[in-house]
Amino acid sequence: MVSTIHWTTGDTHRSARWHSENATSLPRRTAVADDRTKAADAYRQACEGTALLWQGDFHNARQLLQAMGRRVDRKTPGSGTSLSESFHLHRRGSAHRARVLGKLLVLLDDDYTLALRRAPEVRQACLDAYGPSKGPTAVSLRELLGVIGAHQWRSKGVDVPALGTRVHPHYGVFAPVRGEYVDLVAQAPLPPAVLRSPATGTAFDLGTGTGVLAAVLARRGVDRVVATDISPRALVCARENVQRLGLTDRIEVSGPGLFPEGRADLVVCNPPWLPARPTSPIEQGVYDPDSTMLNGFLTGLSAHLRPGGEGWLVLSDLAEHLGLRTRRHLLDAIEAAQLRVVDRIDTRPRHPRAADPDDPLHAARSAEITSLWRLTP
């Protein structure tokens, strides 16, 4: 069912398709905003549920969005009495911020042209993110800025030292900007089953995203890697990167799904690290409701390993520091799946937020450790 927004310009009644990547519901009311609109008025109307369709200068729209954001931030609750409470306050504040700022809309023409003064060229970015246009479409400016930023990342790529080259993330696919988990997979000792016969070794990369870990395993000499994901966008992205890296003869991208058919000498899984509900496509790389992917990997691992094979679970302990999951819970889940821990390789995160004292979750981030758990049946 197509959702349509309606608004009035002068005496003319107009309408357009409504699109939201994070499944935000259709605005109850839509008013027109332009360069004369004050930030206080825009913020008030957005909080009341009114969407504002911008018809002024593009750069002024960005400034208005920033001014609305400052008003949201001033009213956002501070830290809680515990890290768990701080996390939930932070999530609620982020969701409220997204709802309010998501009310500032722009109109994309039927060829994805953004017909605003001083507007950038967005047609290719929108085509990459949304696919072929289905007619004039209203989207939030905040989302569109994310689409533009994702297109720039896709064009430029993300440097991966372990590969000595770049991978190119697509919109809605988690980018490997946190290199420590890639380095763990690049440096961990390969299982004996792979070392005995690297020419026939097989590995599965579950939740491949950009395909970066599959590429690392192939570059390490694993003869055949099957990379899976539940996201159609990720599958397209991984296939493009595999082709760009010249590894199509070594890597098969399969899905959507978690485990492919058959068994492997090595099964690698880097599931989302926090058991919470994502609020946008890109957050699916960080948040895993009820640890669904983590538990799916653990319970299905033994049935997909060849004799002598290993499963590598790459997981941060940030959830433990935030009180979202205990170490005991993880160990019990490993034991319940009749798995044994052969070794654990730890590393500290190197991303800027881990050293930012102004981050509301700094105490947890500064103590975070990312581990590669080597598991066998």
Give a quick rundown of the structure.
With 377 residues, the protein is of the alpha/beta class. The protein is built from 13 helices and 15 strands.
Structure description:
The protein has helices spanning 39-47, 58-74, 83-101, 123-130, 141-156, 179-187, 192-196, 212-219, 232-244, 292-301, 318-321, 327-336, 362-367; strands spanning 4-9, 12-18, 29-33, 50-54, 104-108, 137-140, 158-160, 165-167, 202-206, 224-228, 251-254, 264-269, 305-316, 340-347, 370-376. The protein has 377 residues and is an alpha/beta fold. The chain has two domains: 4-154, no CATH class; 157-376, 3-Layer(aba) Sandwich (Rossmann fold), CATH 3.40.50. The strands form three sheets. A seven-stranded mixed beta sheet has the order 11-10-9-12-13-15-14, with helices on both faces. Helix 8 links the parallel strand 9 and strand 10 (224-228). Helix 1 packs across helix 2 (58-74), helix 2 (58-74) runs antiparallel to helix 3 and helix 4 crosses helix 5. The longest helix is centred in the N-terminal third of the chain and has 19 residues, at 83-101.
